[in-house]
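Input record, target 12 of the design panel.
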């Protein structure tokens, strides 16, 4: 039953009309999908695909960041046996297009944890893959670009005469 429901939601996220309709139910939908991402692959994969599609909408992406989706994604990403790593990395790419997403990923404000997520992602990105299959961390570079953009914008705002 859950798999069928998640497949329907994933299908709806493939169109603009579907995204708009689902956006009206984000308070119920996003937490449910977030919980399913940590489950078995049968439901985790379509749930992650739906979240990636929904996160292309900046309003929904902001809600995801507010509800702790970056923490969930990072926890599941580094859970042993995680089979949805490429989707979670794409979700992080979308969420870090927002300043609040970058701030959350950097763990700004938590001195003990600050930068830990980025360090883990960079380490995974730099680790060479001997496998012929696709590297699940190949898109981490886009996350780093999003972080750099925010830092550059903040620097430009701090010193507008240098731009």
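The sequence produced for target 12 reads:
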């Amino acid at each position: 039953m859950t798999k069928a429901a998640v497949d329907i939601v994933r299908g709806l996220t493939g169109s603009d009309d579907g995204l708009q309709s689902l956006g009206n139910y984000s308070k119920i939908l996003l937490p449910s999908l977030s919980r399913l991402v940590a489950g078995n692959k049968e439901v985790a994969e379509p749930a992650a695909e739906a979240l990636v599609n929904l996160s292309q909408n900046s309003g929904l992406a902001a809600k995801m960041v507010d509800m702790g989706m970056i923490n969930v994604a990072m926890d599941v990403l580094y859970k042993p046996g995680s089979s949805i790593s490429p989707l979670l990395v794409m979700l992080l790419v979308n969420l870090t297009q927002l300043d609040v997403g970058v701030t959350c990923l950097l763990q700004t404000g938590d001195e003990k944890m600050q930068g830990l997520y980025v360090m883990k992602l960079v380490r995974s990105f730099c680790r060479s893959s001997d496998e012929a299959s696709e590297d699940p961390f190949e898109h981490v570079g886009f996350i780093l670009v999003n972080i750099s953009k925010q830092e550059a914008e903040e620097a430009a705002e701090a010193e507008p005469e240098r731009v």
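The domain at 2-154 is CATH 1.25.10.10 (Leucine-rich Repeat Variant).
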